[in-house]
Write a structure and sequence with these properties.
By secondary structure, the protein is mainly beta. 0% of the residues lie in helices and 48% in strands.
Length: 120
């Protein structure tokens, strides 16, 4: 059974940084794609960043140049570095993985989510 466990969320001031982690129960390279999505109150869940097995990445326009997705195969962990945070980045961030899926579409598996709040 696939398990994805996120960590690293919290409260940060505008302009600050956070690093989110997603630990998978098995090898992250068994998935075709992994990524991060977010959902703000009253809004639909949206793609933030994804990374394919072959290392191609995809970012939402709103986070390009500020967020970076990366991975560590030895730790079976995918990261999301969030820099220059803005209040509009406030959301629950979800890790996603799939044996199918694509850089633009989520896979079948979701973590429980971690809250990121950007506020002064």
């Amino acid at each position: 059974q696939v398990q994805l466990v996120e960590s690293g969320g919290g409260l940060v001031q505008p302009g600050g940084s956070l690093r989110l982690s997603c630990a998978a129960s098995g090898s992250i390279f068994s998935f075709n794609v992994m990524g991060w999505y977010r959902q703000a109150p009253g809004k639909q869940r949206e793609l933030v960043a994804t990374i394919a097995r072959g290392s191609n990445t995809n970012y939402a326009d709103s986070v390009k140049g500020r967020f970076t997705i990366s991975r560590d195969g030895a730790k079976n962990t995918v990261y999301l570095q969030l820099n220059s945070l803005k209040p509009e980045d406030t959301a629950v961030y979800y890790c996603n993985a799939g044996y199918g899926g694509s850089l633009d579409y989520p896979g079948s598996y979701w973590g429980q989510g971690t809250q990121v709040t950007v506020s002064s």
